[in-house]
Amino acid sequence: MKVLFVDDEADIREMIEIALMIEDDIDATYAASGAEAIALLKTEDFDVILLDVMMVPPDGQEVLRVARTLERHKNTKIIMCTAKTLKEAETELMEMGADQVLHKPFKPVKLAEYLRNN
């Protein structure tokens, strides 16, 4: 499974990288910004994209919009990661094209299991 993980916080990216590096069936790529993610989305295919919602522009919502306009990612599973727990925020993300919302904080060591089961 080819995964793109996008978060502007280096500590979070590092924890996810450590958690996923031992997984033989997950090939993870990491982006530190929305701009970096958009560049990767235009040139690479991914099975799953995990996007932090709150980043400096372009934020996760903008990356989601761009991904859904790209033919190669029209059907890619996109999981938005957010600390917002309001049902309205989750509904808005789903209406924008997200497949799922993963609420922060989540346990990095459980991420591989989550990806396989969802």
TrEMBL record:
GO biological process, one term: phosphorelay signal transduction system
InterPro entries registered for this protein in UniProt: Bact_response_regulator, CheY-like_superfamily, Sig_transdc_resp-reg_receiver
Gene Ontology molecular-function annotations: DNA binding
Modified residues (4-aspartylphosphate): D52
Keyword annotations of the record: DNA-binding, Phosphoprotein
Key word NAD present: no
Protein name: DNA-binding response OmpR family regulator
Organism, scientific name: Sulfitobacter undariae
